[in-house]
Amino acid sequence: xxxxxxxxxxxxxxxxxxxxxxxxxxxxxxxxxxxxxxxxxxxxxxxxxxxxxxxxxxxxxxxxxxxxxxxxxxxxxxxxxxxxxxxxxxxxxxxxxxxxxxxxxxxxxxxxxxxxxxxxxxxxxxxxxxxxxxxxxxxxxxxxxxxxxxxxxxxxxxxxxxxxxxxxxxxxxxxxxxxxxxxxxxxxxxxxxxxxxxxxxxxxxxxxxxxxxxxxxxxxxxxxxxxxxxxxxxxxxxxxxxxxxxxxxxxxxxxxxxxxxxxxxxxxxxxx
Length: 272
Description:
With about 270 residues, this protein is an alpha/beta fold. It is about 35% helix and about 25% strand. It has 2 domains: about 5-110 and about 190-270, 3-Layer(aba) Sandwich (Rossmann fold); about 120-185, Hypothetical Protein Ta0175, Chain: A, domain 2 (Alpha-Beta Complex), CATH 3.90.1070.
């Protein structure tokens, strides 16, 4: 039976220049591979060693990129290794099969959201009314499923984020602060639900997962074994669970370590 590896991407496997955390002397810094270009500029990286590990993993397991990115944002990433047959975008809102969204899954998600939480328009109106132009740089709607703000982090009032989280909680939504982005996401919109569907389709009897943010907690809890890096929302909250390993590595070297753990667990499972 195949092993399914569902991993978050940003700040888990791939890293912007600001998130690399290259704390070692320059001469000892790892060689980097650019895996994303946006508007003709390099945007995201992994180490060359991580790129080889991901290639090996793609040959050994069903690797499923599992991201909060929109489909358009995901499709500009050029990961090394075999092209994944399945990918999960928009925090579980879309399952891509050979790069094409599964329309039946998308319709099921839309129906679930309509039944279980406040509408996106209400949340967007609240964000527009309560967030200050002094620290908000962009308001965005993603795939007509959730909303996020791009902010000046050093100017962002911590109390405002806490108040937003309470307001959202009462309406069936959750709030996540990741770098310069504040996400407001419906609670029923989860990576774990989409991963369970892919596991069902592939017949996987073991699921491995990794992620760094609050939006990855349900993914990690749904996996048989999971890892989180030493940075991000989950690390800041000292979040853990019985089957989750909290790694000490931070930045791009955490991505390398996560891929080593995926491969080790996959190869341990292989003889069964």
